[in-house]
Structure formats: C-alpha cells, structure tokens
Amino acid sequence: MGTVELTKDNFDQVVSENDFILIDFWAAWCGPCRQFAPVFESASERHPDLVFAKVDTEAQTELAAAFEIQSIPTLMIVRDNVAVFAQPGALPEPALEDLIGQARQLDMDEVRKSIEEGKAGA
C-alpha cells in the first residue's frame, strides 16, 4: 500500500476508517527523519494489512501541535482510535518490527478498560 500523507483535512477520516495505523511525524530538514524514512517505508511493504502514514510537521503544524509533537521523528501507533504508542526517535528496523509485533498483540478491550479506569481515578 505504501505510505499515506496525513493532513488536517484527511486525518480524522483515515484514523476512523482504519483500526491500526503507524504515523511518522517528520520534516524534510530533519536528518534522523530522512534516515528513518526508508525503514518506515520498508516496514509498510512487509505489513500491507496496516496503514503507514506520514505527517509533515512543517506543512501540518496544526496536527503536530494537536499531538504535542516536541521532537521529530516521532512514531505514533493508533489502534481502534486509541494512541497506544508515541515516542520520538528514529528506530532501527528490528526495533520497529518488534514494536509492530507488540502493538498487534495488544488486547484493545483491556487498553480501553485501563483508560476508563484512569479517567475514573482522575
């Protein structure tokens, strides 16, 4: 499938229509972003059942601000409209593969339950 370019105009639609999305927040001037790009692209080819998306933080400042992106690249994983992972830094390929495997194994009912319990305790 390759990667999808996310913008403020298509973000909600892409996230609501797909249950597993990896999002790379990046910028053209960012060296680590350019190093991570082929790793991200390669993973998208190995996992055609997942949506791999990119947000250009320079062009999509509103999205970057909405997710409080402080440094790039930042990788975010969204499952069932829940951000289950967000971390800055360019990951090497084995670490990205491991992360995808862990995210696939998440019990989303448990994740939602713990979120609700966290809200109740706040």
Automatic annotation (TrEMBL):
Q: Which GO terms describe its cellular component?
A: cytosol
Q: Where is this site: Contributes to redox potential value?
A: 31-32
Q: Which CDD domains match?
A: TRX_family
Source superkingdom: Bacteria
Pfam hit, one: Thioredoxin
Record-annotated Thioredoxin domain positions:
1-105
Site for Deprotonates C-terminal active site Cys, residues: 24
Q: Transport: is it a keyword of this entry?
A: yes
Catalytic residues, per the record, are: 30, 33
Query: GO: which molecular function terms?
Result: protein-disulfide reductase activity
Disulfide bonds, which pairs?
Answer: 30-33
UniProtKB keywords: Disulfide bond, Electron transport, Redox-active center, Transport
User: What's this protein's family per the entry?
Assistant: Belongs to the thioredoxin family.
Supply the name of the protein: Thioredoxin
State the species of origin: Streptomyces ficellus
Gene encoding the protein: trxA
